[in-house]
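[User]
If only I could read backbone structure tokens as easily as an amino acid sequence. I have put the entry right below:
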Amino acid sequence: MLSFHRVGCLFQRTRRQIRVPMIPYRTVQSVAAFNEEIRLPVTNFKLHKLESGPSAEASLTKADALIYYRQMKMIRCMEEAIWDLFKSNHVRGQSHLSTGQEACAVGMFAALKPDDAISCSHRNHAWAYLKGLSPHQILAEITGRITGSSKGKGGSMHLYRKQTNFFGGSAIVGSQVPLGAGMALAMKRQKRGNISVAFYGEGAANQGQVFEAFNIAKLWDLPVIFVCENNQVARNSEAHRTTACTEFYTRGDYIPGIWVDGMDLLTVREATRWAAEYCRAGYGPIVIEMDTSHLHGHAISVANYDALQISDDMASKDPITKFLHQLLKNQPCFADELKEIDEIVASEMEIAVEKAKNDPEPDESETFTEICTTWPDQRKIRGCDAFSLHQS
């Protein structure tokens, strides 16, 4: 029988290079039990310009299941913490939560390589965490603290981590789509073997720059997955009221597409795995529509629309609850580990929140720093008027 420490070390070596905090697995009796697979069905896919698609069945090991569950729970707790920080006036301005969309991020992350590039919309907290930022760094950034990922100067929509090719969110609707195509062009020219993933919401799907990016990506067969996270309501308008064709996976026209149940983690993982292989094989871009829902409306500073309807939908479709039921139905022995993960996540989030609330704000001297990576001739940055100049 392996010791708890030994199993933990084995687990650490089998993980991705991206940081996933250690999980204690006190009931694991052997490596064989730890890596034993179960087979689960996935939700049917809809295909556009494809003769075949992702697998109708997914395999899942105990190790992976616990990682996925922990990641989704951490993202959910972090988003709820941001909501609470906003209500207590620790967060100012806009912040867009992805509560209820955890399966989209965690499922895709599980199928990608660590150095695949990500460009997000304004709903980017989950990907910031998965790509290596700690909950404390994210919360500190959103609350405007010097310990944040961008020293508290970027805020909710501008989280980045260059080391893992996470190029953050964008406050300009749809602008991350051509950015994703540009990153794919760089990867193709450098022959690096990785791909780019560009996210956008159904509200951005009618942007002209989205179709321009589609066109050039197909023309040059760029290795990019365009992901439309369709949470049904663009700010305050339902998709059918703003969009003539709401089958967003077909909107690439000449680009193949897949419709995916974005509330089912394993369905998302299998679709992404298939799409990533398609791109890496040199077939060019592909569009994925994630059919999903979120709990808190468009943004925390906007009145929650149809709160009762959203709550009712989430009660039946919540991706974390759905995944939990899948695990317990097929492996009842998961219960103790899952409960332990809940306790660990809650404890870690409580610590992160307290640190973010009490960390210092950036000094005034930081206002004009890091505007340019290189600045020749010691030039200075102009302030609010022509007579105030500042060193960058």
The radius of gyration is 21 Å. The CA atoms of residues 237 and 385 lie 40 Å apart.
